[in-house]
Design brief:
This protein has 14 helices and six strands. By secondary structure, the chain is α/β, with parallel strands linked by helices. The protein has two domains: 115 residues, no CATH class; 131 residues, Leucine-rich repeat, LRR (right-handed beta-alpha superhelix), CATH 3.80.10. A six-stranded mixed beta sheet has the order 1-2-3-4-5-6. Helix 6 crosses helix 9.
């Protein structure tokens, strides 16, 4: 991993409470079905987004979000696991993109034994020595943090319930207090909510509010179905380009041509291009992103000449170039 700065930089991830329902309410219908639901009128009116259920869920309170699984467990899987255990890819025939799929287990059987974390294959795998070939997440992906491991442990120990309330399970590390940005990262997305929902439906991508703060921008997420994101799909996001502050495009089908569309994401702060077909010839297009802070080029065809232009981006704090032809940093 190559970094131009000695200090570690971690792109802020949005508050887990805002993220929770992305997992717990599966692909909620974004049409009249959602708007007509008798159980949701107060939720929709508070958010002012009738018929845009996917976005309402991410920024409002609902019964599902009050559960420990939705608030604390599901976001861990969404961030660390579904790239290999989701809708499009299921290593070991295991899916972790819903509670039902998790409890169904994989080719070796169940992975969660309620009440017994140390006898649960899932917990065993994430707590192995990282050098073990069966350690999860695999392929040098970021491991679970100690807090995330503890969350899984207390949840399984308490019975691995989908419906247990957040307050009913004790011993989990406290969530960080929500903090909005001191300045707007992007325009308020609410006026374009209907348009955003339609793009999600048409393109099969996710445009998720980064937090409860409407000017904190959107995260473009593709981990559950990377095969659906290509250059053409990115081009169709032009109308919401200024709202996107993080783009998670690892393992997608984009090429250098798609970087032209990304260069129009004027408020982009974090960009993950891991294992895509981008090359040094295209990376230079990104120098116009004057707010970009982090870019991951792991396992791409970039080299020293390709990343050199990025040095002109004053805001850029970290560039990851593991498994590329980029030369390692010299001694300091």
């Amino acid at each position: 991993m190559t970094s131009w700065l000695s200090r570690a930089f971690s792109v802020a991830r949005f508050v887990r409470s805002g993220k929770a329902a992305l997992f717990s309410v599966a692909r909620f219908v974004r049409s009249g079905t959602a708007a007509s639901s008798a159980r949701r009128p107060s939720l929709l009116s508070r958010a002012g987004l009738l018929g845009v259920a996917s976005l309402v869920i991410a920024v409002s309170s609902s019964r599902a979000e009050d559960t420990f699984f939705a608030q604390r467990v599901a976001p861990i899987f969404e961030e660390k696991c579904v790239a290999c255990h989701g809708e499009k890819k299921q290593k070991g025939k295991l899916r972790l993109d819903s509670f039902a799929q998790l409890m169904r287990g994989g080719e070796g059987g169940g992975v969660v034994k309620a009440g017994a974390p140390k006898a649960s294959e899932l917990f065993i795998r994430v707590t192995m020595d990282p050098t073990d070939e069966e350690f999860m997440p695999a392929d040098s992906k970021p491991p679970l943090t100690p807090d995330e491991v503890k969350v899984l442990e207390v949840w399984i120990a308490a019975g691995a319930s989908e419906t247990a309330l957040l307050s009913s399970i004790k011993g989990a590390p406290a969530l960080a207090a929500p903090q909005g940005p001191t300045v707007a990262l992007a325009p308020d997305w609410h006026p374009r909510a209907l348009q955003i929902a339609q793009l999600e439906k048409t393109l099969g991508l996710r445009l998720v509010p980064r937090s409860h703060v409407p000017t904190d921008g959107l995260v473009l997420r593709t981990a559950s179905s990377p095969g659906r994101c290509d250059d053409a799909a990115l081009a169709q996001l032009a109308s919401v380009a200024d709202l996107i502050v993080e783009a998670e495009l690892a393992r997608t089908q984009i090429t250098d041509a798609g970087l032209t569309a990304i260069a129009a994401f004027a408020n982009l702060r974090a960009l993950d291009l891991t294992r895509t077909a981008v090359t040094s010839a295209g990376v230079g297009k990104l120098v116009v992103l004057k707010k970009l802070e982090s870019i991951n080029l792991t396992s791409t065809a970039v080299d020293d000449a390709g990343v050199a232009p990025l040095r002109s981006v004053a805001s850029l704090k970290n560039v990851w170039t593991f498994d590329t032809k980029v030369s390692p940093p010299g001694p300091r």
